[in-house]
């Protein structure tokens, strides 16, 4: 297929045979979906629909407004709003895809329980470390820039590049662009650029996609970001910094999903900071978004202390305790980890 060999020839043939006749398929992704989760899900949705399958695409909770321009975004079944509908679809599904996650718990407790009980065949497409063993097939590569890149590999392995049209390409480009920090992370290789070049060749407008995702901010979001940046707390001995935002603070700025996107990277950009965190209070838990530079693994930090995971330099987790206790626990955990 290509020199990456993410999908072996044998696996590709098995998947072709599996999908050679119409199937009932449910696509799933993780909570608090980002550009890669939404982009890869919609790209695969459009591809499978074009192949004649009965396809549903779901998400545990709502997506950010800056992704709702993507073709097919109105097709998402949001689990917390339509639990019975999604349970019915899941019970009748022949195949369930897990996109951009490798542990069912990343979909939330209720949805994770339904997925783990389902007898549907499971296919995982993901690039995060240390996956659970819940799938019959997996397209998995921790060196891939994004799950969207792996969806491209999947489509090309089964149907060739000609199966990627402009609609699919826009979704893939969005996933790759957002998960590589606009093509600046080390995971963005020459192979990644060759893929995006192919997408540009079929008419995908990277300049417009960047504008839709990054340059369409509400005044409330701008005010929230300014307020949050003034709240950066430094832990100089640990070369760490964090922002903590309570429910009340988020409500003050009319918070919507995605409004804090990119804030943790601003924290990491502070001179002398090697570990950064964004701590936000949600309804039933406290969420942590973690970034690092150099050799410090926030993936390991999150797995050890915050019931989460991700990549070496980008991870997330959660705590079920009060907001104030979570901040204290984070600071204590960082001190232990650094020592």
Entry keywords:
6-stranded mixed sheet; 339 residues; inorganic pyrophosphatase (n-terminal core); 2 domains; Diaminopimelate Epimerase, Chain A, domain 1
3D architecture notes:
- With about 350 residues, this protein is an alpha/beta fold.
- The chain is built from 13 helices and twelve strands.
- Helix content is about 40%, strand content about 15%.
Radius of gyration, whole Å = 20 Å
SS summary, helix count: 13
Low-confidence stretches: none
Strand order of the largest sheet: 3-2-1-4-5-6
The level of helicity is 40-55%
Spell out the blueprint of helices and strands:
Elements (H helix, E strand, L loop, with lengths): L8 H10 L5 E5 L6 H16 L3 E6 L17 E2 L4 H10 L2 E5 L9 H9 L3 E6 L10 E4 L6 H13 L6 H14 L10 H12 L4 H9 L4 H11 L3 E3 L4 E6 L1 H6 L10 H6 L6 E7 L4 E7 L5 H8 L3 E2 L3 E6 L3 H16 L1
Parallel strand pairs: 1-2, 1-4, 2-3, 4-5, 5-6, 8-9
Antiparallel strand pairs: 7-8, 9-10, 10-12, 11-12
Helix pairs in contact: 2-5, 2-6, 5-6, 6-7, 6-8
């Amino acid at each position: 297929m290509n020199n990456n060999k993410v999908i072996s020839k044998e696996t590709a043939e098995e998947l072709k045979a599996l999908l050679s006749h119409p199937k009932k398929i449910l696509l799933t992704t993780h909570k608090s979906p980002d550009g890669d989760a939404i982009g890869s899900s919609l790209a695969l949705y459009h591809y499978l629909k074009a192949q004649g399958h009965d396809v549903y695409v779901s998400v545990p909770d709502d997506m950010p407004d800056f992704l709702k321009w993507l073709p097919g975004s109105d097709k998402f079944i949001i689990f917390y709003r339509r639990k019975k509908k999604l349970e019915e679809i899941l019970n009748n599904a022949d195949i369930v895809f897990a996109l951009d996650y490798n542990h069912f718990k990343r979909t939330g407790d209720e949805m994770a329980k339904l997925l783990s009980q389902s007898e549907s065949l499971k296919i995982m497409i993901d690039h995060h470390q240390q996956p659970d063993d819940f799938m019959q097939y997996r397209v998995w590569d921790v060196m891939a820039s994004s799950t969207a890149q792996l969806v491209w590999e999947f489509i090309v392995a089964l149907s060739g590049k000609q199966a990627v049209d402009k609609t699919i390409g826009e979704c893939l480009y969005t996933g790759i662009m957002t998960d590589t920090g606009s093509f600046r992370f080390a995971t963005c290789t020459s192979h990644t650029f060759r893929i995006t070049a192919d997408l540009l060749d079929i008419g995908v407008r990277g300049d417009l996609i960047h504008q839709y995702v990054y340059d369409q901010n509400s005044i409330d979001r701008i005010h929230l970001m300014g307020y949050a940046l003034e709240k950066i707390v430094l832990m100089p001995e640990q070369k760490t910094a964090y922002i903590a935002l309570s429910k009340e603070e988020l409500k003050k700025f009319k918070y919507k999903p995605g409004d804090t996107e990119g804030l943790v990277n601003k924290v990491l950009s502070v001179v002398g900071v090697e570990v950064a965190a964004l701590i936000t209070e949600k309804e039933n838990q406290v969420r942590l978004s973690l970034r690092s530079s150099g050799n410090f693994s926030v993936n390991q930090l999150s797995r050890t202390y915050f019931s989460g995971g991700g990549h070496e330099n980008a991870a997330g987790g959660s705590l079920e305790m009060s907001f104030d206790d979570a901040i204290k626990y984070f600071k204590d955990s960082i001190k232990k980890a650094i020592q």
